[in-house]
Amino acid sequence: MDVGRIIISEACVQEGAEWLARREARFAEALAATGPLPLRRRKDGFEALLSAVVSQQLSVSAAGSIWNRLEAAGLVAPSAIAVADEDDLRACGLSRPKIRYAKGLAECGLDFEALRALPNDAVIAELTALKGIGKWTAEIYAMASLGRADVFAAGDLALQESARILFGMQERPAEKLLAEMAADWSPWRSVAARLLWAYYRIAKDREGIRS
After folding, report:
1. pLDDT attached to residue 170
2. pTM for this one?
3. Binning pLDDT at 50, 70 and 90, where does residue 58 land?
4. Which of 13, 30, 103, 156 has the most neighbouring CB atoms within 10 Å?
5. Is 80 exceeded by the pLDDT of residue 63?
């Protein structure tokens, strides 16, 4: 099965960014503003997916605080999560639904190694079949933990807002529209996401971001 291009280094990201800049003038402008893009790779496995679940619908800072408390309490391994008292997980900042999702993930027996060999659509289908893991979480895992070069989280609000500003749109593009736009950025959609995230931080400092 063809898993497509895997991003393994900053050189891969640079290659994708240069391709995007040649294809779309606005990306060239954004790249000039952001400078070199981050690799944004992390290890795959239970901790990475649990971290993505924790981050759902939270700011980066809030998610980071919860994750730090989970780590300090030794509650980031499947064996620990499976036997943890719900009060202990709640004390770390997990909501009741996320406690259920975390325990379900710890007990589901997901074969993380097998995910590495699946094509992008199959990875997302496998992950979203699990309770509490939506498309956004699956796409983030595919991009950040599996290094897939051609995945794009069109439902991400920061990507939508960044695209609105960069492409001069009056309103944030809805998920469907942004996904259609991103089709033109294949086979480097994950790098397009990195560029839009980087540009979002610049735009946020410059003019503020609407909620």
Report:
1. 94
2. 0.89
3. confident
4. 30
5. yes
Average pLDDT for residues 18-26, to the nearest whole number?
A: 97
Q: Which CATH number fits domain 46-144: 3.40.50.720, 3.40.50.11810, 1.10.357.10, 1.10.340.30?
A: 1.10.340.30
In this prediction, residue 205 carries a pLDDT of 75
DSSP conformation letters of the chain:
-----B--SHHHHHHHHHHHHHH-HHHHHHHHHH-SPP------SHHHHHHHHHHTTS-HHHHHHHHHHHHHTT--SHHHHHH--HHHHHHTT--HHHHHHHHHHHHS---HHHHTTS-HHHHHHHHHTSTT--HHHHHHHHHHTS-BTT---TT-HHHHHHHHHHTT-SSPPPHHHHHHHHGGGTT-HHHHHHHHHHHHHHHHHHH----
Q: Which CATH code fits 10-40+150-207?
A: 1.10.1670.40
Which position has the token pair 């933990």?
145
